[in-house]
Queue: 4 jobs
Job 1
Amino acid sequence: MNTDQVREQAEKLMPGGVSSPVRSFKAVGIKQVVVKNAKGAYIWTWDDIRLIDLINSWGALILGHARDEVVNAINRAAEDGTSYGLTSYPEIALAQIICSAIPGAEMVRFVSSGTEAVMSAIRLARAFTGREKIVKFDGCYHGHYDAVLVSAGSGVATLALPGTPGITEGSVSSTIVVPYNDVEMLENVFKAYGEQIACVIVEPIAANMGVVLPEEHFIKRLESIVKKFGALLIFDEVITGFRVKWGSVAEIFGVYPDLFCLGKVIGGGMPLAAYAGKREIMEKVAPSGDVYQAGTLSGNPVAASAGVAALSLLKELDPYDTLAKAAVTIKDAAYIAAQKRGVPVQFNSIGSMFTIFFTDQKVINYDTAKTSNLEIFSRFFSKCFNKGVLLPPSQFEASFLTVAHSPEIVSQVAEIIESAIESI
């Protein structure tokens, strides 16, 4: 079968022919990519076209595709059984790594997705505080859990949906949305509802409206407000955990939340996520406490083994400075091309993750992210794609570099991005 036949088959069997909306590539006006296989920095499409991958399973694959050490760990674990629905040592070993790497993560509960981690952490925060309301930030995406799928970025932004049908008013009636980086608005919200707010959940470095960095002191002031009113602070680090630095970005800001939500990198490319936090809070989770949460595949031994292998290798390699320098190489090329052609560009990056926005406004929140010219982005995406570089098919997603992106590959990416911007 050729790719068109595969797509046609997919569309008959799955909504839109995909298992997640952004994979449709509708936002950039091309047909969806169907992957045959991947290795290192590359994926091969069904038609055997090789592409340098800057999606990398939306950030999960910091070591690149099919890293031998991770694949070997998966194979060894699978030979002992693919699922038990019972406690096994790989999840204990992974918990030890996470707790030793993240100050403030004293206990961990494993789940299978970032959405599960978020919904469980919010439930726990409500139970611990005895309060109902939650605060999130405009453009931050915390999974497809009803209470937080309001004013979200990422796929919702790409598809221009205000939220989604099927979510009742009651599901979001206790959710308060504040602009990212707006401390004054947050203070006003707490003055009005402080005694009712259970938690504030935030991407400490936003990556679902594109990469958007917190302004100076934003995270510190956020922490002080939350503490003053006795609410809990939840860091959604499904993307940034072990991606920007070893462990949590909390150490960058000197702010340690009450709960962390983790995913992507900690699973080594397998479906695995977690929520973690202070012992006194986590011990309220059943069976230690009365806050119920369960999952047959939670802590799956194959996924946990992949996570142990990936994190162990990541600690050994310590690639963070090298990856950050690679992103700067691409940034310099983008700005050189933008200046030559007079194309408005903002390059937001931290560590190995970046987003190129086509706007002349500094991107500090969702409103400024939305000033990016989507028509230019679509043309830019197509030009890069045709030259062999696969970017995320949405202006509101982050690109990710990996250990597998050698200096030669990074130089090639920089040249292609420079050429693509010059040709717009």
Job 2
Amino acid sequence: MEGRAKDKKSINWINKAISRTIDLTCEVKHDGQFYEIQNLGSNVYRDFWRALLDWNVMSNKIPTFISFNYDLVLEKSLFQVLNGRTYQFGDPRLRSEAVSINYHLKNFPCFNYNFVHHTFTTNGSHEGIKLQPTNLPNNNHYKIDLLKLHGSLNFSKKKVQKSSTEINLVESLEDPLILPPIFNKLSNSKGLEPWKIALSKLRKAKNLCIVGYSLPKTDIYMQYFLKAAIGPNKNLNKIIIFDPLLFTDSQASQEMKDRYRSCFSPQLQNRIVFKPIGFDTSNANNKLGSFKHFTELLKKEPEHILF
């Protein structure tokens, strides 16, 4: 679809439609303002960040995130968890005084937020953390590398002229930079840098968690990418895959396992975990292989998936 000018126009309209649809259907809400507490949307994303930050109190590390999604769920839920956080209910103290979010895009700044004391009046009055955008990074900060390989609803196609404090990180753009589903995903040079960083990170990873990605047989490029990224990694401990299909006794489950095995050498195939340890499934929402499963494991037994 990229060949002719008319075709490029069609892709632009498709991208705009995708952006608008995702924005309208996203249940996790945050407007990027920090004077009140905002908690609309599923708890599972907030639980994910809380579990990761609590683990960070002991480890002083934040894993790298590699995402194929265009949405802003991770950013919005992180704002929900940090802005307004209190210690009234036994939450462990955060070891840092700020947070930075780096997409590793040449045309997009790194976003820095200091933690400042604030009195919130939402549903009563209480003391807590308020995020304050700043252009000067705090040395004592959580460093979050968020590599969105297919683009994002908040990525501009043009070079951003504003400073990070002038940009609303969780605002969806009308015509954002999102990469169409073509074979050569690196054909758009604007999105090249995150792929390079992702390749480097995967080659050094100790543990790799893959959540909600079935490695479809049509995604040939990603199969090559995984081979190139993981193949030279001599320090890899294990690859843990979370997908409900893998907990079924079906041909589709076996085919997914075969696709993943084919990406790695026989030595690495033995390190793939297709059925991570489970937890209480009496609740219908606690589906094995789901993001909820991943979050519960991160909360209760982080040492099983984080090195």
Job 3
Amino acid sequence: MPKDKTGIERKNQLDVLNKLMNAKEIIILTGVRRCGKSTLIYQMINRLIEEGINPKSILYFNFDEILEFKDYRALDIVYNTFLEINNPKERKYVLFDEIQAIEKWEQWIKKSYDLHGREIKFILTGSNNTMLHDNLSKLLTGRIFTREIYPLSFREFLEFNEILPYGQLQKNEIKHHLARYMNFGGFPETVLEENETIINKRLEEYYNSILLRDIIQPNSIREAAKLMELAKYLMTNTTSTLSYNNIAKSTGLNITSIKEYISIMEHAYLLFQLNFFSYSLKESIMIQKPRKIHAIDTGLRNAVSFRFSKDEGKLAENLVFLELRRRLAEVYYWKNKGEIDFVIKNKDSSLTAINVSFTNRIDERELKSLNEFKSSFKNTKEIILVTEDIEKTEDSIKFVPLWKWLLNINSAN
């Protein structure tokens, strides 16, 4: 496999995926465009070959190309041609990239899976999480393992730049790299680029490609200009609590369109909505409750939003949100007199409250909010305040520097 295809190995991701390769279930990788799914596929192929799998038993095809057919006929042609050329005798590994471009692909996959079972190992990728819902969930229940892929974590960012081990770095060195990660994000192709003009141009192209190819075109959006205006408004206002009514006043769109467009953007992994925490599911998703918006990547957000300051507080909070997603946390926000940036429902039914205050001058309101939450919910297990440099435990509140929390070094999470 050519080096320009396999890139730098994302070892943690590969190790997880490698453990699933011997199972019969279909592996589905989803995530935002350009986050590295295709490169992971190439790396998986490389590992298969290194482990002795015959290359003629491996089929890779990217459906994000101009094809004569965009339905199951394309799958038939690709797979049958592979069989005719290679005539594989062993277990076949079929890796289909951006398969959501093919209409009714899930029906073809189900039929092939049910007919051949362990004879074929399917690994599929897509840039839209709608592929995990609707017909797919009905047709392939019990037949799939899914994994969401994100732009690089801060740990991966350091690994890509060969800045290891962390223990040998001075704090000011790590903070220097954190500032760059915060400003330019974790898309793999931008992480190794030093020219800031090229980085920003590349991120703008990513953003426009996501909007056009994953949002506007596949959903036949008629109000494309208004959707693009809404997207920029949301990216600018990441981490803010936004009600549909306020968004409607700011954009001129009606609430029905706003809900639909935000849902589509969320399916394309451009952004995420964070719901209000409540033990009542109905209350947590009520339209009257404002939502918090978080971007898929701080660099992407910075490249396309209207910025009037460094916005370090917003960026730090967005980084914590993304890391919680990577850690598969069930996460919400909470607000009463004070506000909690993140409430995590733990598997043992306990709660963790996290506020992010990227400064060394902690506002008393942050502490009051955390204590208010603890008083309101007796099953609160941990209270964490993510800071710039402060590290201590005081009145049961754990103060953790952002870089330590992201790297999970002696942190409370």
Job 4
Amino acid sequence: MIKASVRRVGNSLGITIPKSILDNYHLEEGDQLYLVETQDGMMVTPYDPKFSAWVKAYESSTKRYRNTLRELAK
């Protein structure tokens, strides 16, 4: 487990992310992170959970309408 401290950044608060985590997840300055509340606490992720839901919906519709989409692509 790695600790991070909440620090003042101007009029806001922020956390500093250790270099090892930045390197593991290929994060750079300006990248967006999402804070997701879970039953176990808070999760910080570079992946947009709304986009994941969209991808699941897309995958289910492409399976269902595979033949129709194949015909439309001709």
